Amino acid sequence: MSLQKIVRHRTPSDRVLRGTTLAGVAVLLAGLITGPAAYGTSTVPPEPTPTGSGETTLPPADETMPAAAPGEAAPTETVDPVEETDGPVNVTLPTVEGPVVVGKTVTAFTGEWTGMDAGTLTLQWMIDGEVVHESTALPNETVQFLIPASAAGRSLVFSVRPGSESDPVTTAPLTVGLGTIDGVVWNPAINGKAVVGQVLSLNAPTWPDTDSVQSVATYQWYRGTSPIPGAASRSYTPVAADLGQKLWAEATLSAPGYAPHVAPSAEVTVGPGVLTAPLPSITGTARVGQAQTANPGIWPAGTTLSYQWYRGTTPITGAVGRTYTTVPADNGQPIKVRVRGTKTGYTSVSRDSATRTIAAGIITATRPVTVPGTHRYGQTLTVSQGWSPAPATIRYQWYRDGVAVSGGTKSTLWLNSSYIGHAVSVKVTVSKPGYATVSTTTVRKTVGKAVFTTTSAPRITGTAKVGYTLTTSLGTYSPAPAAYGFQWYRNGTAISGATNRSYKLTTTDGGKQITARVYAKASYYETRSTLSAAVAIPAVPVVVLGGDGTYRVGTTLKPGLYKATGTGDDCYWERLNGFSGSFDDINANYWGPAKTYVQILPTDVGFMTDGCGKWTTVTSAGARATSITADGTYRVGIDILPGTYYGYGTGDDCYWETLSGFSADFDDLIDNYWGSQRTIVTIPSDVKGFSVDGCGTLTRK
């Protein structure tokens, strides 16, 4: 805003201060009070503005003039005549005229002075006593002052000093009123489409006369007559609560020192919003029985989606979920999904996906088609299978050597004798409406004869000694055989010719294991072979030495345990390490009853016997007696059983020994006794031998 010099002519009698209150406009203080170009002077005092009430007479010099109301000029004073002095004398007081409001220019009269001799006056404008502008002028001149924004509500005083040595003359304080923001340019129309979800905006108001005054525009949107909380910017996006409501806004232009300028916008009625609806799609295998999934795309937040599946143009009853599993009726038909979006305040929108043609479904085997069990005569074969989904129809056809079996169209097949030796298979065909038919054929398997089940094995009975006859039982079988066959074995080797139910033991069988195999036989059955448990045949002692004499060990006589067969009490033998006849050749010797044993060691060179009878090999069998009636040497656990034996004789020459072996070495002796026949002896189970002489009868109890 520019300032213009205003020159008015007036007479001293017209000294009247007039004021008008105006609404303020914001003005920058710095731009208004610092430049002298903003102020003008005139040599002619201004004419007073008529007020309608005449002039205001100054009060007496000793009375204080009241301050003017905000926006009004202060009353003027009339100076009483004074006597002439040598210095400047104020004849007419300075005055201020014009609207005392921010942003307006007031005009000040410097007053009439005498004794100035063409000197200048110092002028000061003060706000609340602080000088904000200073300049010079001549008496009887007018100057202008633009009231800054910082003066709003404060006291304004105009001061005139005729010289540095004189006191200033001031006007009465004037209260500065708020300026008015005039000439605002604003288009009150609301920009944008008035629907939920779309942005509405306001035009920005402008104040073209503000020059450098900083103004600020603020906004408030209203729903009807109520302000919308938080809606305080130029733009606003209507929400669901605005649907059908009238929206408008207030624009407020504010500046420091100015009364706010408030203006309402135009009014709009909010309609329903338009949802942004993406095109949905479908994923999943396009076959009967497969799940189809709708992918709706990205919809605006808060949108509720619903689904409807269509077969062609017909909605599928109940198919209202995001997924849909196709049924046989969909085979070969176009399928699509319609997605409908609903959101409060918006018009609901539906979008259809592209269609996809559904192919026939596939029936899948959940387990292989097989024919378990034994392929033998008399058995019933049953097909094992599993399918998904369950087929509506299953058809069977059995084949023998690749040729269809007449009447073989069930899931089972009984194998009669005509199938023995032939390969059997079955073809299974499954079907279901809307699904492709599936066929599979099992692997061929050859049918064998039936087999017997053994419920009890054959068992050998009879005396297990050479020269005696053994007999085998038949065993029991299911079903009962029609015929039997036999074969006897010696140590696992078939005995030639031994093919009857009974077998007589020979000397060859001594020391061997004898078993019998029974063969069960019937038509259409495989011969069943069952082996009995083995029977041990005791070995027959063999004469090794025929009588008294000396024998070389390793050739005629092999190391081992031997038994004397003599009956007297004068049996003598020696184990030798040489044949020189010297005492040193004897490793060990024995003299006593001929009922005895000798253990010939591999380290022995020779063996001499006298009065002992023949020497034979020994067997693992024995009498296992519990009574000892004759003197001699016995094998514990074979000839006699271990235990505690009692003697009740009356003689005093009873002698016995427990032995760890039969070599006659001193180390073989474990314990011994010599004394009365009335004795008790415990024969442990871990000793090898027991020798007794002159003890009578010993009985185990």
Give your account of this protein's structure.
The protein has six domains: 12-180, no CATH class; 190-273, Immunoglobulin-like (Sandwich); 275-361, Immunoglobulin-like; 365-446, Immunoglobulin-like (Sandwich); 453-536, Immunoglobulin-like (Sandwich); 543-700, no CATH class. The radius of gyration is 72 Å and the shape is elongated. Helix content is 1%, strand content 41%. It contains one helix and 68 strands.
Major β-sheet annotation: 5 strands, antiparallel
Percentage of residues in helical conformation = under 10%
Mean pLDDT: 88
How many distinct beta strands? Answer: 68
Return the structural class: mainly beta
Rg, alpha carbons: 72 Å
N/C terminus separation:
151 Å
- The number of helical runs is 1
> How many domains, in number, for the residues?
6
Low-confidence sequence ranges? 1-69, 72-82
Strand content: 35-45%
Shape: elongated
Helix and strand arrangement:
Layout lengths: L28 H5 L7 E2 L46 E4 L2 E3 L7 E5 L2 E3 L6 E7 L2 E8 L4 E5 L8 E7 L7 E2 L3 E2 L3 E2 L9 E2 L8 E3 L13 E8 L2 E2 L7 E2 L9 E9 L3 E2 L1 E4 L3 E2 L3 E2 L6 E3 L7 E5 L8 E8 L2 E2 L7 E3 L8 E9 L3 E2 L1 E4 L3 E2 L3 E2 L1 E7 L9 E3 L1 E5 L4 E8 L2 E2 L7 E3 L8 E9 L3 E2 L1 E4 L3 E2 L6 E4 L3 E2 L7 E4 L3 E3 L4 E8 L2 E2 L7 E3 L8 E9 L6 E4 L3 E2 L6 E3 L3 E4 L7 E5 L6 E6 L9 E7 L4 E4 L5 E5 L4 E3 L9 E2 L3 E4 L7 E6 L5 E6 L9 E7 L2 E6 L5 E5 L4 E3 L1
Parallel strand pairs: 12-19, 22-29, 32-40
Antiparallel strand pairs: 1-8, 2-5, 3-4, 4-8, 6-7, 6-9, 9-10, 9-11, 13-14, 14-17, 15-16, 15-18, 18-20, 18-21, 23-24, 24-27, 25-26, 25-28, 28-30, 28-31, 33-35, 34-38, 36-37, 36-39, 39-41, 39-42, 43-46, 44-45, 45-49, 47-48, 47-50, 50-51, 50-52, 53-60, 54-59, 55-58, 55-60, 56-57, 56-59, 61-68, ...
